[in-house]
Design brief:
With 77 residues, this protein is mainly alpha-helical. It has helices at residues 28-33, 39-55, 65-76.
């Protein structure tokens, strides 16, 4: 079994206006089909994500699990 690269940052909420996830920038359809999309198509989608996120009207206000875990790990060091 191979690991599938994913842009997910564990902030799963869709912006109603754009249809993009606030965390990763993917659409619902892309998120749902991510494991069956070809690696080439996943890379193409990932190349578009930063531009998509610029169009999202609001950013998540809460700290993501991933950023919290990174912050806690830094504090331990």
């Amino acid at each position: 079994m191979s690991i599938i690269e994913s842009p997910c940052i564990l902030v799963c909420a869709i912006d109603v206006k754009t249809g993009y996830c606030f965390g990763c920038g993917r659409t619902r359809e892309e998120i749902g089909a991510w494991s069956v999309i070809s690696p080439e198509n996943r890379r193409a989608i990932m190349g578009d994500l930063s531009a998509r996120l610029e169009t999202v009207e609001r950013r998540p206000r809460r700290e993501t699990r991933r950023s919290r875990m990174a912050r806690e790990k830094q504090q331990e060091a």
